Amino acid sequence: MLQSAQIPTHISAYKRQMGAEYEKLHPEIQKRFDFSTSNNIAFIGRGVMEHIWNGNKLAVFVLKLLSKSNILFPRTGQNISYEIHNYPYIDDFGREVHSMNRVFYFTDEEQRFDGTATYSESKQQIVEYLGLDHRMIFEMGLKAENGAIRFTSGRQFAFLGKLKIPVPSLIRGDIELLEWYDDEKQKFYLDLKVTSKLLGPLFGFTGWFDAEYLVFKEPTIPQKFKPIRKENRE
Length: 234
What we know:
The protein has one domain. The protein contains three helices and twelve strands. The radius of gyration is 17 Å and the shape is globular. This is DUF4166 domain-containing protein.
């Protein structure tokens, strides 16, 4: 028999975390983040990142290391084709999760920024595992701003073997993402910035995408987006 605390997990994690504040979001933003295994909706956005930037040489070195796990990347560019894939599913640990797979189509190669998000019952908020190997995790803050949704990363941890190590605030990459809907252009827009107290600006991109909503009842996500290592510690 399921415990009462488990029953609400099969609704949008964003609705759970934001509560009444979710209703302050633009209707299209509400629709965009209303995916779960209960409504069998997946979201795919396709568009263009008009500007992708990075920081100083040391920041680029860090980005090169992170790119090996599909966590950010060192490339920059203008007007780069972009996709975001959000598939809800039940993971190997029985949790409602959804993929956060971002694909950037440079002329000579693809670059990825992948994650897997779930609502943590113990923390009462969304946590996101970064990359396809789930070696890093951060706590996600959500806020409505004039109809837009703002994401901010909180505490971060790294998994090394059996160890769960807090990432010191001085060196971690703090993520801030604003996503909104333009009624006139009928497109979604986003602006992402990653900064470090130690290194300054690390990485970011800004651009737009169109929405596609899919009926998704598959037990697993497309092969290219599957985590190569799975973590259940939060």
